[in-house]
Amino acid sequence: MSWDQVRLGDLTHFIRGVTFKPDAKVEVGSEGSVVCFRTSNVQTKLDQSDLIAVPRDIVKRDEQFVRHGDLLVSSANSWNLVGKACWVPELSYEATLGGFISALRINSPRLDPRYLFHWFTSSKVQDTVRSFGRQTTNISNLDFARALNLEIPLPPLHIQQRIAAVLDEVDALRQKRERSIEKLRLLKSEAFKFAISTVEVREITLGEMCYITKGTTPTTLGFDFSSAGAKFLRVQNLVDGRIVHASDDLFINRETNSALARSIILPNDVLLSIAGTIGRSALVIESDGEMNCNQAIAIIRPLHSINSAYLREWLDTSEAQAQMRGSSVTATIANLSLGSISKMRFPMPDLAHQVKILIELQVIQDQIDYQRASLNHMRDLGDTLQSQAFSGSLTLRNFEVAL
Q: Least C-beta-crowded within 10 Å: which of 162, 193, 202, 392?
C-alpha cells in the first residue's frame, strides 16, 4: 500500500515559547497568572506534577497559549533530549510554554492529531529530528526548518484515525507496565528504608568514602568518536540500575580513551546521571567491558567499607533522590555538581549488613526485572507496528492481529 508523502510544514507549524526572567515567576493559580510548561514537563506524558506560573501579560500572542492536541517539543536541551515530545491533553487551566520548548500544531484538516503524535514520537523520526540539532556550548537546539521539511506519510483520514487508535492501545499496555515498575521501585525504596532502621548505621558524606569524578565529551578536546573501541556512555545507557546498550551507542578509540583517563570506568563503579535527567544510576559489572562517559554522568568509586551494589540501591531511594533534587541547579538544563554529590548524607551499616539488605531487596528486584522484560517486549512491538503502519506495509486487519 502506497500513501502520499507530504511535507510536515504543509500540515503543521512550530510555535516558540515565551521568555522571561527568573524573578518573573508567580504563584500558580494567583490572579493574572498562567501556567508555563518547561522542558521538565515534557516526558512520555505531560508531567503536571511540578508547575510554575508567570504573569499572563508575558504571553504576547494568542497562539502561545497551549491547546489540546498540541505536541510540546523540547527544542533546546541536552543532545539526547532534543525533539522529545508529549501530547497535550485537555487541561483544566490556562497554560503557555517556556522558551526552551515549542508547540507543534496542526493547521490542516487532512492530518489527525493522534496520528501525528505517534509518527513524530516514533524512533525513526525522533532519531532524525535529534540529528538535526545545532550544538552550542552546553545544549543542542532543534532545527525547525529541517524538521518541517520532513515528509510524513498521509493515508486517508479514517485510516490515520484507526492506526492511531491501535497504537494508543499499545501505549496503554506499555503505560500499565511502567506503572507496575514504578510501584515496585517505590516498594523497594520503602523496604530499604525499613531495613536500615533495624540496624546500626553511621551517617557519612559520600565524599568521605568515595572518589567522585565525571566524564567529558571528546569533541571538546579535539577527539572524534569511532566505530569501535571503548563504549562511550550517555544518560540513556543507565536503566534500572544497569548499563544497557542500543543501536545508537557511541565508541571512542584507545588514544581518546587514554586522553580521557580521568573518566575511564571500572568494575564496581557506580554511575549517576547529573545533567538533564538527574538521579538515574547504574552499577558497573565486569562483563560491561571497557567504558568511558560524557559530562552528564558522574562516576562514584567507593574506596572502602561500602558495597557498591548497596550504594547503588541507596541512590534509588526517595531519601537520596530528595537530596539530589534539593541540590540541583537549573540554568539551561538541570545539573548536579560533584561537590553536591560529595556532601550527600549516606547511611552506612557494616559490610555484612549491607549484603544482608541487598539479599532482602532481591525479591523485589526480580519482579522489576520481569516487568521490565515485558515492557521492552511491548516497546519492540510498538516500534515494529509503527514502522509497518507508517510505511503502509501492514494492513489494519494484520495490525489488530499483531496485538
A: 202
Give a yes or no: residue 195 inside a domain.
no
Residues 11 and 122 in one domain: yes
C-alpha cell at 398: 494484520
The verdict on 229 and 137 lying in the same domain is no
Identity of residue 143: D
Q: Kindly state whether residues 377 and 359 are assigned to the same domain.
A: yes
- For the cut 50, the answer to whether the pLDDT of residue 331 exceeds it is no
> Would you say 46 and 70 are in contact if contact means Cβ atoms under 8 Å apart?
no
Q: 323 and 232, same structural domain?
A: yes
Contacts of 214 (CB under 8 A, 6+ apart): 263, 274, 293, 295, 297, 298, 299, 338
CA 390 to chain centroid, in Å, comes to 25
Tens of pLDDT, residue by residue over 87-122, are 999 999 999 999 999 999 999 999 999 999 999 999
Q: How many CB atoms sit inside 10 A of residue 363's CB?
A: 10
Give 318-321's long-range contacts (Cβ < 8 A, gap of 24+): 318/186, 318/189, 318/193, 319/193, 320/279, 320/344, 321/279
For residue 4, report the phi and psi dihedrals to the nearest 5 degrees: -60, 145
